[in-house]
Batch of 4 targets.
Target 1
Amino acid sequence: MKLICRSALLLLGALVFFGVAGVVATWAPDRPVAALQARWAQPPSQFIDVQGLQVHLRDEGPRDKGAPGSPEGTLPIVLLHGTSASLHTWEGWASDLRRQRRVVRFDLPGFGLTGPNAQNDYSIEVYVKFVTATLDALGIQRFVLAGNSLGGQIAWATAHALPVRVAKLILVDASGYGVDPNNAPLGFRIAGTPVLRDVMAYTLPRGVVEHSVRYVYGHPDKVTPALVDVYADMMLRAGNRRALSRRIEQGYTGDVAQIQALKLPTLILWGGRDRLLPPENARRFAKDIAGSTLVVFDDLGHVPHEEDPARTVAEVRRFLGS
């Protein structure tokens, strides 16, 4: 009996030792935004004050568009990223679209270099008000709105709230019908689990970040070390890990009646290999938004705009020119 107890204590001690060793090995405290700007906020990045936040944004392309009465073919396009992403996810689209029109993208509160808000509130309603305030600050009254994942949900909710201002809508693997937590990337599951999320606030194993990024790609081999660097550094921005936990708590289920009430030209782009939000959700959006256009890329994942910018933005250009 004493031998069994002693063995159990040794095992417990070993688990504690290796657990502590693991935490020490992956220790990653928050980094101030100033420490990240040199690498991730190079020109044309800028910071503007919106609702008390220093919002990291990039505003490129012709600036004389978007005024009342502008032709829809010249309206600015606003790009909203998803959970744990940043404005960098849109680089492929922005480099193409900014040649003909104004392209605006920014880090949403709780993510990227913008960081958390003081209210610790990342509800869709709060995001809609933030997007509106940001565009007001930039003097943009009428625009095309595109969003991926969480950004897609914010986009359609904003289109519902501002029907006169949003001319066209582009949904890229958008949330809104709920998310099965069992299908979430490893990093999201950790952020949504008590105790583990508290540990994550001080550690960040690179393997967890890499696994999560590879999970949302249809072709995981396309995930490069440089891409993992972007996601890892954005997670380390002071306050973002705790904000992620709060965002997950607030959920991804929207008001379906708002989706069904949308009456504007809408393009739905989806990755056929999306494991987080499967193509069934795309077909549901297409059914609920009358007159919408659905394009599925069978070989791409949850972030098709990032995984294959050229092929996906070609559909965007076709839609904007129609």
Target 2
Amino acid sequence: MKFSDIIGQSVLVNSLKRAVEEDKVANGYIFCGPKGCGKKLTAFVFASALNCKGADREKPCEVCSSCIKFINGNHPNIEIVKPTGATIKIKQMRDIISEVSKTSLEAGFKVIIIDNAEKMTHEAQDAFLKTLEEPPQNTVFLLLTENQHSLLPTIVSRCQVYNIKRISNNDMERYLKNHYKLDEDKVKLATAHSNGIIGRAVQILQDNDYINERNLYIKTIKMLFEGNYNEASMLVSDIAASREAAEGYTDFALSWFRDIMVLWEAPDAADDIVKNIDMLDELENIKGSLTKWKLYKIIDIIKDTLKQIKQNVSFKNSLECMILNILEVSNGKDSWGKV
């Protein structure tokens, strides 16, 4: 793994490379971003570069003894802390603090990677803060988190914070085409539904369940517009086995009707903007049964439902109300008249 494997993050990559090259390494770094965005990859590349013994300016070299140990997963200077159960507990932090106080077995930097750092208990964060205030020499802490605001402000203030950006569609497609020998339609589909998150795109490409799930989502929407509310309701009830699944379905429904809005507002840009471009005929069919007012109303209904689910309102009831309201809007009169 090299810095070149981190795509779409030029500011972050240049900053970390410069820290290694100029030997101006901070004691604490926070890599923040959604699941699958590349936080762990960034931490691993940086940790490897910090300990690389290669003569080349470009680090990590992947061929020196240190890099080989890192690649094999047995580098003595690298420690990874993960939640045990739901949290990272104070005992784990005390064990790490005890470990970093010992003399290194190998020259270089001790690198402590704290995965899901937002899951540290308050007591664990307090214990960690004391070490961060007076860190041992040549020790670097890399905190990976989806939400830096869950960390104590005093921890954040003592770290360099990098928010990992979502990747552009062009960068995403280029990466996927270079690494996965798949047809262009699959790459475009994965890119469109990845929301700029590389790990999500790879998951879509590798997970047949995602395609089946998406087809089921589309089936429920088609049923609604064919007037089959009862069948659609039963399918949606099966889909929404968990809050996460309910949120996934609602996110998809929002993307579907936003695609229809694009076909209304910017048909010439559809190839670049529409997420479900492989379902253009289905989108056009449903578009033909709607007016703009109905479309905007349906999008508002889905947005409100997504907000309710995120606020822990009963997700099954929320979804049942959502599809019933969509059906009523699609079959009802248009408040604007025909638009």
Target 3
Amino acid sequence: MTQRDPPSSHVTRPPARGLGRALLRRLPLVGTLLGLALAAWLVATNDLSAVGAAFGRIGFAGLAGIVLVRALIVLLCGLAWARLLDGLAPVGAGAFVVLRSVREGINVLLPVASIGGDVLGGRLLTFWGVTGALATASILADMLIQVGTQALFTALGVALLLRLDGEPAAALASWMMHALAVAALVLAAFFAVQRAGAARWVETRLAALARRFVREGAGADTAGPPGSGVQAALDAVWHGGRRGRLAQSVLLHLLAWMLGAAEIWIALACIGIEGVGLAEVLVIEALSQAIKSAAFPVPSGLGVQEGGFVVVCALFGIDAGTAIALSLAKRVPDVVLGLPALLVWQNIEARRAVLQPPGRP
């Protein structure tokens, strides 16, 4: 009787982990295709001449004002990020402002999900001597505060929206309140994991992400808090003795979200739309940004942002052509500020490669 060979220990199994990574890599591509399809539908169903006429009335001066407002928003967000590491890393606020602009440029101009620039921003921060663990912790905390303050800003928009009469406004407000309830649960869980370190496996996986996406910078051995893990770095960021710095970061992010309404006001004033006051502008900005953020897998909210403007602006009698022109006006700073930011990123990488000691990874 012929003896069968024992089963090989190298039996091919479904590469579940590899499949998951492949899906994550393709997520921005799928989002891009969906966004392009939505944008094409909006173009096909609306009068392009009306969009062009409304956009043309904004003019160079209006667009310049919008770009200046966006630059101020990026500055505020960079300062908010810097407050999180004040006293923990010997890095000036200027570096955080520069890297914040890089984060924004990557997120709005490259085909990545809306967190791709944030991950890379953490890696670049290590070039200033911040440990990989502390850089990762700062990104996680900054993203949590940013999303949390956006939820507060959206809640303000919903509260103002509830003052309007009509079924469309009531339906949109109801949908937004349900979305805010879900977001609140997710944010609370995310904060609990960061603040309390609910289980050891969380730290292990965060550390693995840090090793994968964030390389240690030069001189990092002196820049971090006690402890080498990401959880220890998160504890240092969220420590009770730093409440003043955390409160400043929250206020700066809130101010940045509210300042975004100035972009809408400038564009509407240039187009010549009357009867839209501060409350209406805040609603348009808050809800359109919330809709865009909900579609984070779509790079730069392509198509989604325009659709959100059409839906929200219709509540105030603003036609679809003008709404799309508003969205296009808000994309001008993405390009004007984003392209230089990408060049800065490449310059940082090039300088790092030149200064890198031979044989160091």
Target 4
Amino acid sequence: MTEMARLFLLLGLAGTAVTFLGSLALWFLDEPRRIRRALRRVLRSEPEAMVLAKGRGRGAGFSFQTGLAAVAWDRGDWCLIYRIDELIGAELVVDGQVAARVYRGEPRRALDQMVSSADQVTLRLLFDDPRNPDFDLDLWLRGDEARRDDWSPQAAIQEANRWLARADAILRRPPAPKPAPVVSAPPPSPPPAPIDDDPPWDDDEDEVADQDPPRLL
């Protein structure tokens, strides 16, 4: 093999290795995979359902196996964890108006009209948490048609409706029974000191009885 052929072979192998590593990096850093990995980590199991706001680095998922729900943003770099029973509702918001909703203790308000076009489609999850009571997922924003060919306002509304149905099923589940409080038993008390049944004057009588009787002179 000539030097020129060996050089071309090395260049080809190097190019193949660079292409493979680049493809692997793109696969590993893919936004949906990063969010799924983050949700899997905080939920401590594979999410049984997951919704993504693609292009905005946000997602949410839940796991009945661990009884947890979680939301993620910044492509999974930040997450919030809730108990599933802390979910109190969900809303489908179209162009700033609530088009459908489910809420604990209320009948489901279904989507009553078809929406052919919209500038914004948002799925809002509501939690019983005063510090972080809601989480918005913008499933569609104006301009997404230029970025994604496989997405539309109707597809975003259908995805949000599926999540409303999931939220409704979660809210209708009976709450998990809370474990009974554990009451620690008091430490055992030391055994009582033995009680001498004989009265103290018996000891004096015994001592007198042990002495020799007086001699008669």
